[in-house]
Amino acid sequence: MIKKLFRWMVPFLLATLPLTPIFFGEKYYPPFLIALVFFSFTRYGTIKIIKKRKRLLVPYVFAVLVYLMYTIFSPEIISSLKILERQSSLLIIPLVVIGFEWKKNDIKIFFITFLAALLAIAFYSFIEFLLFMQNNADWIEYMGKQNSSKALYLQYKFPHIIKVHPTYWSYLILGAIVMILADLNFKDGRNLKSHLLLWLFFSLNLFLLSARTSILIYVFINCYYLFLLIKKYRRQKWIIYSVLIVLSLGLATMSKLPLFKVKYDAIKNDERSTYWPLAIETIRDNYFLLGEGLGQSNKVVRNYILENGDERINYHAYDLHNQYLRHYVDMGILGFVSLLFLLIGHMLPIKNPLDPVNFISFSFLILFGLALMTESYLIRLKGVVFFSVFSSMISVLNGFLSKQLKFN
């Protein structure tokens, strides 16, 4: 029994790991990681499995080595070391995942634990939201007048009541939606009802957060799923029409939400429209080869703000909000290549995106790839952990699907 408990702790802790820095704070992350490493490496044969599957680690090792090299040559070694410290999870977590002797039941435990934990947090957040509305009616009324709409203020306040960044919460929800759609079975009535309810619940949660890029990713993933449905159920058109109607109604509802309207209208004045051309100009000045040094993209943005009197002059942190450009500015062409390899390296065993068994893999590729365009999430611990857990899980899953690995 103890042996089984030790075994189950690995997928259980792994499923809760990406939630820890996002919902509970980064200070609680190290104990979870230490426990995960302990339960993983106290099992007999872990090192042997890692040696056997070492090819799967190549993208992560290459990325961390590039980070290490540019840390050594950085003009500001202290700030670079802080960035490098966060990248340790980019190697430790894949080592645990790839070195684990996975069985089908273990993968089931991972998915169920992740969905159950995210569902519990969502319910908790809604309860806290209702209590906030009940206990702060006068303040809400005042803020409603200041913001021209109580609904706008409440929607903005929703994630901040439990002190969570809406963008990173959205990434977790998108991960849950991918899992739900992948396990959806239209021929099993019980499965269909439960999975559709979960899909609707998490979709509502995502719409309330109104993170623009996450909603775009949501549309892409659902359209991809719909395309696979059309391919699979050509003769059962009711399935296709039902999904299309539900998706259309959901998107129509989302477009009416006040916070989404405000964020959509703000796109034309977004700081990214200023910073991205600045980054491209810096890359061009470095002959498309060299980098400024790890973490120096922040300095490029800061200098621009100081010179041009930007209203964000009092910011304590500066960001390009684009991981591709950040890698290129910081680490040159080598950094950019390492990022692309990290992004698609776990996809290499998979060839056909139109095969339904590859839906999870390509959906997460859409999620990772598009999210990197508007958020430099690989410089933040919560983003590194999220990416490390799911990309390495997909790497192992792809190995099984391509028959290069076998379930024990």
From TrEMBL:
Protein's cellular compartments: Membrane
Membrane-topology annotation of the record: Multi-pass membrane protein
The entry's keywords: Ligase, Membrane, Transmembrane, Transmembrane helix
A GO CC annotation given for this chain: membrane
Transmembrane domains' residue ranges: 5-22, 28-45, 57-78, 109-133, 168-186, 198-227, 239-259, 328-350, 356-374, 381-401
Keyword Membrane in annotation: yes
InterPro entries xrefs: O-antigen_ligase-rel_domated, WaaL-like
Record domain O-antigen ligase-related: where: 200-339
Top-level lineage group: Bacteria
GO molecular function, one term: ligase activity
Keyword Ribosomal protein attached: no
Stored PANTHER family: LIPOPOLYSACCHARIDE BIOSYNTHESIS PROTEIN PA4999-RELATED, TEICHURONIC ACID BIOSYNTHESIS PROTEIN TUAE
Protein name: O-antigen ligase family protein
